[in-house]
Amino acid sequence: MERLSWHFDFHSHRDIRINRDPDVVGMAEALAAAGVEEIITFAKCHTGFAYYPSRVGTPHPQMAGDAFGDVVRACKARGLRVLAYISFGIDGEACRRHPEWAQVADPAVGPRLTPDHFIASCPYTPYTDDLMLPMIQEVIDNYPVDGFFFDTMGAMGVCHCQSCQDEYRRAHGRPIPAGPADPEWIRYGAFRRERAWRVVERVGQFILERRPGAKVGFNWVGTVRFPERMPPGVTCLTCDYSTVGPQSLQGSFHAAYGKMADLPCDVMYTVINHGWGDWAPRPLAGLEQTGVAIWAHGCRPYLGDRLHPANRLDPLSVRAIRHMGEVQRRMDAVYPDADAVQPNEVLVLTGPLAQYGGPGAPGFAADHSALVPLEGMHRLLLDAGCALGIVREDLLGRHLSAARVVVLSELKAIGAATSAALRGFVEAGGQVLITGRLPAVDGEGALSWAGLRREASPWQDHIYLPLWQPDPEQSPVLVHGAFHRVEPVEAAVVLPAIQPYDCSAGMRFGHGTGPASAEPSAHPALVCRRLGQGAVWYLEAPIGSDYSQRANLWQALWFRGLMERLLPRPAARVLSAAGSVEVVPHVSPAATWAFLINHGGEQLAAGLRTARTGDAVPPYPVVVEVRVPPGRKAAAVTVGGRRRRYRVVDGVVRLETTLDCLWTVVKVTWR
Q1: Which residues pair with 478 in a beta bridge?
Q2: What does the alpha-carbon distance between residue 68 and residue 49 come to, in Å, rounded to a whole number?
Q3: What is the dihedral of CA 227, 232, 236, 242, to 10 degrees?
Q4: What is the C-alpha R_g of the chain?
Q5: 127, 169, 220, 556: which has the fewest Cβ within 10 Å?
Q6: What count of Cα atoms within 13 Å lies in the side-chain half-sphere of residue 429?
Q7: Is pLDDT of 62 > 80?
Q8: Do the beta carbons of residue 483 and residue 462 sit within 8 Å?
């Protein structure tokens, strides 16, 4: 089980007193007593100040002594690993002294300089050689740190500074294009991507050559925003997600990706309610709810917190550390055996072509809108009762042998090798589900082996899906988003689309959406093509995007019916009429463990800003189903360590219970 870790934010204005009333020994003792294994503490912040007596950088003008070094030495003395935080891509002091080092997002505006706050810096200027690498060397020479955490990836943004303009002109013989309307923008995207990984590799290798075995992470690099293989020098991934919106669901989403990666993954979430600059803490229940979701997937929960400028823990930090230490002890007591593995039978695919787009796209990491259908599909599968992993494209091959279903949620494009691997997976007995669009196949046009043709122009901007079983008390299931006519060529129609009542695209009943027509249309919504021993399914509805925006529970119940057809006997699933309960199974020869995580209870302020879970969460009646392995029988079933009665139906252990707490573990022992 990955151990609890803690990040201490320390961005400080020049007039704030630093290290004037320290208690680093008390800080280290509190962390060690809670079983915290590793911390991140600041060597340099976004404002550009060093928190140690640097001869290279700018020490904070109101700092007494060595704030960074005091924390490092105290925590190392108690056996904790310590990473040095260095801001990468934001440095106010450096850019005030060297405006030519500042990033220029808009050439008409120039560098956005401030007298005393953050300024985006460009790592492709002399900033890296003249300041960053010397500061890293200074830290390595003087402190027993175990690695470095670099923040932020804004360093990879669009930049028109003189250094970037000169390099682009040398490479391509013209200035950097002004914006996406320029056809050269695609080439500029590739240029940004190549040099981003080059500087990341250079910094990482610089550290590893001087401190072999160090942990080196760049915030967000290699994660769902940048889902590709990392260059040498990066030894871990860090998902530091937004403080806005549902927290435990975001933690689960990033852990579902991180557990499938080729590097260890930390998922960072915050003690703070709104942002890094306050002490409006989340209730302890919310910290536990999110941390357990991360642990269940096998990733490391990294708590983001503020360190008091006096260089001591705030009482609210002590409270959070103690609580999460106790959660870790409870988690240790029920965590699966070392030989248990997650079956990961359902994979949701992503990758650089999905995020950045294929030919004709605006280039590297232009925006993160492609995350919307991915996040929506994660939550849709979760509410439908399915366990899942999110896998990046270049790692698909190593996970396909265990998978039974692969989902492509509105992917823009996939590689030709991925297309071939997926077709082979289907022919060998797997199921592929494509929703919302047929992805382009790099260099080959639209994916062809789904057995259908899709019109280029939308037919409707919302449609209805027929129920799996007629129900006079429920209408068909509404899905918003562009719907195209589909012509089955080698695929069979499973369900037709139902057109809105008397509506064409763009029409509404007042401010809302009208009812469904009484009869289905002539156009398919769901088709299936059998290939070899498996099948490829295509749903012509952007259900992932729509679920991300609206969380229509009837969509989740409908999707459960679809997944029952694709995956009739998963290793484990949970049936909750209200959704909001996640199942994460682990399987060994001796037992199956099913983590149940209650994602309910979050109260969201207007605009989905501040999210919090109080002490109580809604109780959800659920049915847990666990597949019986071949040749085995259930010996006992426990919930939270207590034996429970169960039934075995058609090779599946069925247990009815109520999840009236934040989380529990169902364990089925085999004989």
Answers
A1: 464
A2: 11
A3: -40
A4: 26
A5: 169
A6: 6
A7: yes
A8: yes
Q: Is the pLDDT of residue 151 over 80?
A: yes
- Assess contact for 193 and 213: CB atoms under 8 A: no
Domain 5-334 class? alpha beta
Residues 6+ apart with CB under 8 A from 270: 243, 276, 282, 303, 304, 305
- Where are the chain's structural domains? 5-334, 346-566, 572-670
Return phi, psi of residue 142, to 5°. -115, -10
The tally of CA atoms less than 13 A away on the side-chain side of residue 331 is 29
Alpha helices in 553-665 (DSSP H): 553-566
Q: Is 373 strand, coil or helix? A: helix
The residue-averaged pLDDT of 206-210 equals 98
> d(Cα 434, Cα 536) in Å, to the nearest integer?
8
pLDDT for residue 606: 59
In whole angstroms, give the CA distance from residue 667 to residue 208.
42
* Helices 284-297 and 247-258, axial angle in degrees (round to 10): 20
Contacts of 449 (CB under 8 A, 6+ apart): 419, 423, 529, 531, 536
The Cβ-side half-sphere exposure at 210, using a 13 Å CA radius, reads 21
> How many angstroms separate the CA atoms of 139 and 132, rounded?
11
SS3 per residue for 273-330? CCCCCCCCECCHHHHHHHHHHHHHHCCEEEEEEECECCCECCHHHHHHHHHHHHHHHH
Rounded CA gap, 203 and 89, in Å?
A: 13
Give the confidence band of 233 by pLDDT, cuts at 50, 70, 90.
very high
Q: Sign of dihedral through CA atoms 296, 299, 300, 302?
A: negative
* 541 has pLDDT over 90: yes
Q: Which of 640, 631, 646 is nearest to 666 (CA)?
A: 640
CA dist., res. 377 & res. 544, Å (int): 5
**Quick one: CA torsion of 433, 437, 439, 444, rounded to 10 degrees?**
120
pLDDT tens digits for range 561-586? 999 999 999 999 999 999 999 999 99
Summarised one tens digit per residue, pLDDT across range 177-204 is 988 888 888 899 889 999 999 999 999 9
Three-state DSSP at 564 gives: helix
Please give the DSSP secondary-structure letter assigned to residue 169: H
Residue 363: per-residue pLDDT: 72
Contact 584, 595 (CB under 8 A): yes
Phi-psi map region of 549: left, alpha, beta (phi>0 left; psi -120 to 50 alpha): alpha
Q: Please enumerate in sequence order all residues whose Cβ is within 8 A of that of 655, keeping only pairs 6 or more positions apart, or say none.
A: 623, 624, 625, 626, 637, 639, 644, 646, 647, 666
**Under a CB-based contact definition with an 8 Å cutoff, are residues 625 and 592 in contact?**
no
CATH architecture for the domain at 346-566: 3-Layer(aba) Sandwich (3.40)
CB 664 within 8 A of CB 634: no
CB of 288 within 8 A of CB of 662? yes
CATH superfamily of 572-670: Golgi alpha-mannosidase II (2.60.40.1180)
Whether 286 contacts 602, CB under 8 Å: yes
pLDDT of residue 157: 87
**In this predicted model, what pLDDT tens digit does every residue of 310-334 receive, in sequence order?**
999 999 999 999 999 999 999 999 9
Comparison of pLDDT for 243 and 560, the residue scoring more: 560
| Cross-strand pairs, 564 | none
Angle at 488 between CA 483 and CA 492, to 5 degrees: 110
3-state DSSP call for residue 11?
coil
* The pLDDT value given to residue 152: 79
